Structure prediction request, 330 residues.
Amino acid sequence: MDAKKALPIDVLEEIEAWNLFKETAENDFKDSELRSVATEVDKKCAGLPVAIVTVARALRSKELYAWKDALAQLQRPSPSDMQSGVPAAVYSAIELSYNNLKSEELKQTFLLCGLLGHNARAEDLVRYGMGLRLFENVDTVEDTRNRVLTLVSNLKAFCLLRDSYSHERFDMHDFDCDVALAIASRDNHTFALKHEGVFDDWPDEERMRKLKMISLSFDSVEKLPHQLECPQLEFFCMGSKDSDAEIPVNFQLFLNYTLGFPSLEKVIMRQCPKMEIFSKRELSTSKLKGVQSTEGEYVGRWEGNLNATIQQLFIEKNDQNCEEETAVSF
Prediction:
């Protein structure tokens, strides 16, 4: 589906791999039975550092039965390189770590991080998580922010996330991101395209009707479907990695579609200074409650319907730019 690029992957020698495995698991495996299982688990990582670290960290301090279960999981067939773009050993390792996450909340956060991609803002995770109701027993934005930071920290401890260039952001390894998207596609009815991929074939109508999350980029999509009917859609993200990019002609045709998103409850518009309208045709968003457009905004604006709200935000943005230009001229 995405264009795959060949990446050089370092493979460790057997002794180096075993030493890294023991170091990460924080275990010398003096118990003979545990050592026997652990060495087989290590072999399933195929000498790939990202697989070794991910698996060993997930199994740290676990009992023998957990190691045996992990070995059984790693022995099952995994998606091939052509299907997922990830080496089989790495895919199995990341999926094992995902399966060992302690809560559904943590799992869903990891999958959402995959949609956000590299160097994502924790504050965006707060917004999207609130909109999707991912977090339980949180009543305020501050409570949600604290929960998100805790979840991000836990995912880093499992080697599924890593530090970014700023403390306000987090990052993912390419493999972690690809596996997250693959799992989300399989289990969460998600359709997502990364910026560097090229895509020319849409899901069939039956799958489109089941989709709950869609994330697209102008950089990846060369053609649009004849219709876009997603009655269960809860999350829709469309844009470009270049905030100044013009909307391509094929996406401008998107404005003439009749669109129905009856499950959509929240829209977040960021870095869309030239967006005047969402659709020129009939637009059904019966559950939509607000459009968020500025930093720190969580309630959102609402002018009765999505098009009217986007138009009003566009007018206000233009008025603000005019005032700034006038102030500079004086």
